[in-house]
Amino acid sequence: MAVLLPAWEYEFVNMATENHLFAIAMQIVMINGGGGKTEQDNHEGVDSLPSQELKKLANGNSKIPGTLDDYRKLVVPIIEEYFSTGDVEFAASELRGLGSDQFHYYFVKKLISMAMDRHDKEKEMASILLSSLYADLLSSYTISEGYMMLLESTEDLTVDIPDATDVLAVFIARAIVDEILPPVFLTRARALLPEFSKGIQVLQVVQKSYLSAPHHAELVERKWGGSTHFTVEEAKRRIQNILREYIESGDIDEAFRCIRELSLPFFHHEVVKRALTFGMENISSQPLILKLLKEAAAGCLISPNQISKGFSRLAEGVDDLSLDIPSAKALFDKLVSTAISEGWLDASFGKSAAPDEEMQNTSAVKVKRFKEESGHIIHEYFLSDDVPELIRSLEELSAPEFNPIFLKKLVTLAMDRKSREKEMASVLLSSLRLELFSTEDIMKGFVMLLQSAEDTALDIVDAPSELALFLARAVIDEVLIPLNLDEISIKLRPNSSGSQTVQMARALLSARHSGERILRCWGGGTGWAVEDAKDKITKLLEEYNTGGDLGEACRCIRDLGMPFFNHEVVKKALVMAMEKQNDTSILALLQECFGEGLITINQMTKGFARVKEGLDDLILDIPNAQEKFGEYVELATERGWLLPTFASIP
Asked: Which family does the similarity line name (predicted)?
């Protein structure tokens, strides 16, 4: 699925007469926050025939839909049944039975588009179903993807539904009021849609006609006149009243009866969230609140998943809660500790509930020692330009929890040096993202840099401009995706130096031919190694596909001198195998590289994982991509190319 997160590929063109525009883009801080338009890869030649060795996987018999087309056929009857019966629990059970979380964005789109062409009753039912499934089956991200697809197809919807613009605006406003879609979605969507599209008109109606209106929440909730079900807002009010009455009376049986009568098992996370909030607002009520939640969990009234979701939702808003309850963070941590110790909250929650505080709670001595050691590693890298050696040194530190600190240290040191070191730092980020660092590590590192941007500017005068270039370069190098800039912005103070730096990075990315200019911003140098390597890999695979010289192909891969980048060889080889008819030859090359130790099992696994992540895009151009990739995975598993952890990669 690639709606909000397209496979960004940049077209590099020689622009000798327009270099002055790049300098102008550096001045744009508060204008044009959207990313630039890009093109996706085009894949041709889908008539490839599987080899005899690969055909043995052909007769898999799974009930889980393997393709989006299969999912589409199965999901429509679920929606039709729901509109007929109004049974939320049955609809949730059927959707869960499909077991295809990666396609649930389409369920959101289809549910809304079908409701748009029906009566107000079905529109209200659709909104209730989304709110009921939120945090259990549908994440905010999945819901955002579904709504983004709807915005992109508004023109088509208008052909069959004349008032589609207004109806879709109400659905989006309702999702924001119901707290299943973040308000920042409007900003993100606006940046991704064409300027004069109907999708932009929908967003304008949402903002001006609904969310800006007096008492907008009540207006939106009552827009369709309700239904046989009470609305989400009414459910929240009932939950609040149930908890207040329980705190006053202490009658736990009555509270349980009222919660059961709500008949909203998929909305019990709201009970948990509001109960915990009451307990933080009124310390004297905590024993009653903890007793209620503990016994509700023990009696299976509230499922472990709903308990965890409730804690997670409160964790997300604890910073805002601190404005009214100064000790909110400490109180929340205590509640988490109590729930885990009493056994009604999964112990793993404590490890992930507050990721931003993990480093703050770690020994200061250990952090200081890590900074010193990482500083030595970075200085040595700037002298040697040896990426594999740096990666080995970083692995030896065995401190992955400090990866964001390493990124901050790397970029800070590079900003105070010459263009060569800045280029080397960007190249290293590309390698680390593929070897050691997660996207979350990269984002946290940049957030730390941006939060201290004002202090950094005291020592490095042009720090904001340099940091904007590092951010933009990270997007061009696919270390980050454009949407990550929005996620980073949310964690920064409005109008701060860091926030303005993100805006500057967006402006750089939105300029014409931004890819080439940003890649050359520090004069090229070692940074072109990654882009050159991609071109060389493509050429050597094409030459091998034509000539079939196995030894020459292996020699060319070895001559690249970038063993940490061999996952790119695997990725491009697998895509070429899907496109061409002689996939046996391509797979023979991978076998030879693996047998010689030229491509390690780690790099092989990363290459397969990258193809797996992009399958939804490949299917658009290679209809049988899913089937062929499954055949390749079985072959690779049999021959020991893949790590056991590959099966758990989503």
From this structure: Belongs to the PDCD4 family.
Single pTM value for the model: 0.36
Tell me which DSSP letter residue 477 carries: T
Least confident range of 34-48, 77-91, 432-446, 480-494 = 34-48
CATH (domain of 198):
1.25.40.180
155 plus 86 within the same structural domain: yes
Give 138's strand partners.
Answer: 134
**11 or 553: whose pLDDT is higher?**
553
Final residue in a domain of this structure, among 318, 353, 388: 353
Looking at the fold, whether 113 and 205 belong to one and the same domain comes out as yes
Count of domains for the chain: 4
The candidate with the shortest Cα–Cα distance to 429, out of 384, 478, 358, is 478
Residue 334 counted as domain residue: yes
Question: What CA–CA distance (Å, rounded) separates 60 from 250?
Answer: 56
3-class SS letters over 428-444: HHHHHHHHCCCHHHHHH
Distance, CA of 91 to CA of 89 (rounded, Å):
5
The residue segments making up the domain with residue 306 are 236-353
CA gap 178, 233 in Å, rounded: 7
With both helix axes pointing from N to C terminus, report the angle between 463-476 and 403-415 in degrees, rounded to the nearest 10: 120
Report the alpha-carbon distance of residue 411 to residue 433 in Å, rounded.
Answer: 14
Domain stop point among 179, 194, 221: 221
Cα separation of the two ends of the chain: 13
Domain co-membership, 171 together with 256: no
What confidence tens digit (pLDDT) does each residue in 76-93 have?
Answer: 989 988 888 778 888 888
Q: What is the band of 232 on the pLDDT scale with cuts at 50, 70, 90?
A: low
- Whole-number Cα distances in Å, 255 to 237, 250, 301, 362: 14, 9, 11, 41
- Say whether pLDDT at 13 is over 70: no
CA separation for the pair 463, 171 (Å, rounded) = 43
Residue 570 lies in a domain: yes
Residue 101 forms part of a structural domain: yes
Same structural domain for residues 490 and 538? no
Tokens of 165: 């613009």
**What gap in Å lies between CA 203 and CA 172, rounded to an integer?**
8
The pLDDT-based confidence of 62 (bands split at 50, 70, 90) is very low
**How high is the pLDDT of residue 454?**
72
* Phi, psi (deg, nearest 5) at residue 138: -115, 125
Q: Within this chain, do residues 370 and 519 fall inside the same structural domain, yes or no?
A: yes
Task: Please give the distance of CA 343 from its chain centroid, rounded to a whole number.
Answer: 31
SS3 of residue 72 by DSSP = helix
Answer positive or negative: Cα dihedral of 183, 188, 191, 197: negative
The reply to whether 517 and 534 lie within a common domain is: no
**Residues 436 and 468 both lie in one domain:** yes
- Say if residue 71's pLDDT is above 90: no
pLDDT over threshold 90, residue 292: yes
Residue type, 607: G
Residue with tokens 């389409």: 106
Same domain, 376 and 419: yes
In a domain, residue 62? The reply is: no
Quote the CA–CA distance of 545 and 586 in Å, as a whole number.
7
Q: Which has the closest alpha carbon to 481: 141, 197, 181?
A: 141
Which two three-digit tokens encode residue 487?
A: 């996620």
Question: Phi, psi at residue 9, to the nearest 5°?
Answer: -135, 130
> Strand, helix or coil at 561?
coil
- Dist CA 4 CA 619 (whole Å): 17
Residue with tokens 């979605």: 185
Which amino acid is it at 416? D
Alpha carbon distance 343, 451 (integer Å): 37
Give CA–CA dist 133/264, Å, rounded. 10
Beta bridge partners of 39: 9
